[in-house]
Amino acid sequence: MKIYTSLEQVAAPRAPAHVTIGNFDGVHLGHQQLFSRVVRRARREGGVSVAITFDPHPLKVLSPKGIRLISTTEQKIELIERAGVDELLIIPFTKEMAATNAEDFVDDILLRQVGMVSLVVGYDYAMGKGRAGGTEFLKQQGAAKGFVVEVVPAFYVGGKLVSSSTIRDLVAAGKMRDVRTLLGRYYQIRGEVQYGRQRGSQLLGYPTANLRILAEDLCPKQGVYVTQVIYDGTCYGGVSNIGYNPTFGEKTLVAETHIFGFKDDIYGRPLRINLLRHLREERKFNSLDELIRQIEKDIAVAHRVLAREK
Fold this sequence. Notes:
six-stranded parallel sheet, six-stranded antiparallel sheet, 310 residues
């Protein structure tokens, strides 16, 4: 997949572009409907399939509260490429971009610069200043300017609407099996392994790999999870505690993961953690022995869950 990170990189003349556009946070099963249709259309009619998205997410620029994202830009790129899209245009989102009216966006960017001949959008998509360019506007523009517009209806799985906002709520509630159903994959957190206080190995006998969770990250419900840990191309089982470690009075939010059968030194190395199931709430223990006994129980349950998932 060819990736453009600015409009200036998109050179004319170009092959006819079959386009889908959106924020695509999470690249969930609803988004996958858009990608599959635009890829099929490009293969059937000739030309290239193009996904257009924005970085940062518009709400990070326009809303005082911002937004906590399901996926990083890195994850979004990987997942869109996996969907078979030929080209990805990531437009830097600024207040100036937000002030662009919808018709100018269609004329100057989609038609003139990208070379669009067809557009696939979700049922609730709107572009331009004040989100004035909704699906009816786009259909009118297509009829007047000679491009096809396909509006994909809402997508449901098991009676649940597949949407980024629904998935964010499920992640915050720790409902990882429901999250997986709507995403089409496990929810994943990523980061570099940080130095901790070495209590896992020295006091408890269960060494952990620690990832810092930032305030702006979408933090899953605090507690203990069954996890899959991907390191250097290999998947391991594990248990992760996401929280503040109240037994030791910590004040920093971290994900501490004990990786089964793993002893390598991976400080500073990238780690990916799939969250399979929320096991229990985080709580304060009265003694180290009590904490160790609970860890042993958590690990036993985790092995059973992982065996089923394998």
